[in-house]
Amino acid sequence: MNSTFPSDIPSYFADAESSFDESDIVIFGVKFDKTASFRSGARFGPDAIRKASWNFESFNFHTGVDLQDKSIHDYGNINFDENADVNQVIDQVQSFARSIVKKDKIPVLLGGEHSLSAAVVQSFANNIGVLSFDAHADFRNQYQDECYNHACVLRRIADHVGDEHIFLCGLRSAGKEEYIELKKHNISFIDTYTFHEASNKKIIEQITSSFNNRPIYVTIDIDVFDPAYAPGTGTPEPFGLNPIDVLPILDALSPKIIGFDVMEINSQFDYGQTAFLGAKLTRHLLEMLS
Ligand SMILES: [Mn+2]
Question: How does pLDDT run across 33-57, given as a tens digit for each residue?
Answer without folding.
Answer: 998 878 899 999 999 999 999 999 9
